[in-house]
Specification:
Number of strands: 7
Shape: elongated
Number of helices: 8
Radius of gyration: 19 Å
Number of domains: 2
Structural class: alpha+beta
Order of helices and strands: EHHEEEEEEHHHHHH
Oligomer: single chain
């Protein structure tokens, strides 16, 4: 069993696979995390998809698992297509798979996706059912990935003046998207050479700040950041177009 000290923390694959599978009942089939990974791996192999990177988080002593697999050879600009998934062996939430875009430039580790295939751990949750879920998220979300990639690239075209940058920082702190304690670190990142004075750079610096969070916290925070940047993009992007 995985020790409780791993709760909410990044974990290695062998630690994820070490979590024991509870006994099935007539109505509850809590598959082991390792079985979930096997299904995902088998689909990737069948579809000739090579996994470039794997990351996991465990919580509740290993009972809850969250993961992201980046798919190699499916990238546009600074994003890569990725599969995200979650599972619980203690009835805390349903099994879910998603796919979407992941920002890998400067190791920001951002993952943008929506859980579109969800199944509770009922007796109907079989290996075959999980396989169909994974295949569906791969085949139905490529268009969404391309849209996100275009949005991400579009951020580079929105130049930010010093007043605009200062205004965005204040708004980010007031909204809670940027923690006050992270202010100095954010400024150092944003003003560094790798982040130009654009909305793309602003977005990159914000996502880099949270790269050491566990995957659960990271996913929640990225949604907040994406909404904040999207709102700014709508306003500033329209101005830049004129």
């Amino acid at each position: 069993m995985v020790k409780a000290s791993l709760s909410g923390a990044r974990a290695k694959e062998q630690e994820v696979r070490a979590v024991a599978q509870p006994k099935f009942t007539n109505t509850w089939h809590p598959w082991a995390h390792g079985k979930v990974l096997d299904v995902l791996g088998n689909v990737c192999k069948a579809e000739n998809l090579k996994v470039a990177r794997k990351e996991y988080s465990l919580s509740r002593g290993g009972a809850n698992m969250f993961g992201v697999w980046e798919i190699d050879g499916m990238q546009t600009g600074e994003t890569r297509f990725a599969a995200g998934f979650r599972s619980s062996t203690i009835k805390e939430f349903a099994l879910a798979f998603t796919t979407g875009a992941r920002v890998f430039v400067c190791d920001n580790l951002m993952f943008q996706g929506t859980f579109i295939e969800i199944h509770k751990h009922f007796a109907t949750l079989t290996i075959e059912t999980m396989t169909k879920m994974v295949r569906k998220v791969f085949t139905q979300t490529l268009s969404g990935y391309r849209e996100f990639s275009q949005w991400h690239e579009g951020l580079k075209k929105v130049k930010l003046s010093e007043p605009q940058s200062a205004s965005l920082i204040v708004k980010a702190m007031k909204s809670g998207v940027l923690g006050v304690m992270k202010f100095e670190q954010f400024c150092e990142l944003y003003e560094s050479e790798r982040y130009a004075s654009t909305l793309h750079g602003f977005h990159g610096a914000m996502t880099e700040l949270i790269r050491d969070n566990n995957l659960v916290q990271t996913q929640v925070k990225h949604k907040q950041i994406s909404k904040f940047i999207t709102d700014a993009y709508i306003i500033l992007g329209s101005k830049a177009a004129h």
